[in-house]
């Protein structure tokens, strides 16, 4: 939870409110208990009614802990509200970053080739080769690597002029930015 002074002050107020609520409940409970006991006793017992209620109230309040107050419905509700607000604020910030990323992607999109050099089809799950920085569709490149290894051969990067003669599965990494660029490109060109 945020540790801002205003939020701490608000949390203290909610704790005080729950403490007062608990006090009221303890008082009502002690009055109910004592009056139930006294109903069946002679009228002389009514004289000590005030002291009996006070003693029982003190006993009940002694059992109230901060941990119990933390579980009070008002405190729990307050903390949930703050947590939800923080998550929404975080999502809003993430959405703003996402929009900025979309704008950056739009600028570079026109300069990028989304066609897999293996399948000659637009990539769906693009992976980047960490050694030579070329992109392939994940399924196609993994299938080719396995096929070449079954024949005891190395898989060479299919990009024309690339000197990477041994592409390994460990060299590949999923590129979410490229995937997003492809999705944006599809949206803009009307492809599904």
From TrEMBL:
Query: Sorted alphabetically, which SUPFAM superfamilies does this protein's record hold?
Result: RING/U-box
* GO BP terms in the entry: double-strand break repair via homologous recombination; protein sumoylation
Pathway this chain belongs to: Protein modification; protein sumoylation
The compartments listed are: Nucleus
Q: Which InterPro entries match?
A: Nse2(Mms21) (IPR026846), Znf_MIZ (IPR004181), Znf_RING/FYVE/PHD (IPR013083)
Record's keyword annotation contains Acyltransferase: no
Provide the SP-RING-type domain boundaries: 101-187
Keywords assigned by UniProt, alphabetized: Ligase, Metal-binding, Nucleus, Transferase, Ubl conjugation pathway, Zinc, Zinc-finger
Where is this chain primarily localised? nucleus
GO MF terms, alphabetically ordered: ligase activity; SUMO ligase activity; zinc ion binding
Spell out the GO cellular component terms annotated for this protein, sorted alphabetically and separated by semicolons: nucleus; Smc5-Smc6 complex
Q: Which family does it belong to?
A: Belongs to the NSE2 family.
Which protein is depicted? E3 SUMO-protein ligase NSE2
Q: Which organism is it from?
A: Labeo rohita (Indian major carp)
């Amino acid at each position: 939870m945020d540790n801002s002074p205003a939020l701490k002050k608000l949390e203290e107020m909610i704790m005080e409110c729950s403490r007062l609520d608990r006090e009221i409940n303890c008082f009502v409970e002690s009055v109910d208990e004592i009056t139930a006991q006294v109903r069946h006793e002679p009228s002389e017992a009514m004289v000590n009614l005030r002291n009996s209620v006070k003693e029982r109230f003190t006993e009940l309040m002694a059992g109230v802990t901060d941990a119990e107050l933390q579980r009070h419905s008002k405190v729990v509700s307050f903390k949930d509200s703050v947590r939800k607000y923080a998550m929404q604020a975080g999502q809003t910030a993430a959405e703003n970053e996402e929009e900025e990323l979309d704008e950056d992607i739009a600028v570079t999109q026109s300069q990028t080739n989304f066609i897999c050099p293996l399948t000659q089809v637009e990539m769906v799950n693009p992976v980047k080769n960490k050694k030579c920085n070329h992109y392939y569709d994940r399924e196609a490149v993994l299938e080719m690597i396995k096929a070449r290894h079954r024949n005891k051969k190395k898989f060479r990067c299919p990009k024309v002029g690339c000197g990477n003669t041994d592409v390994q599965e460990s060299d590949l990494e999923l590129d979410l930015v490229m995937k997003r660029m492809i999705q944006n490109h599809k949206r803009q060109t009307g492809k599904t």
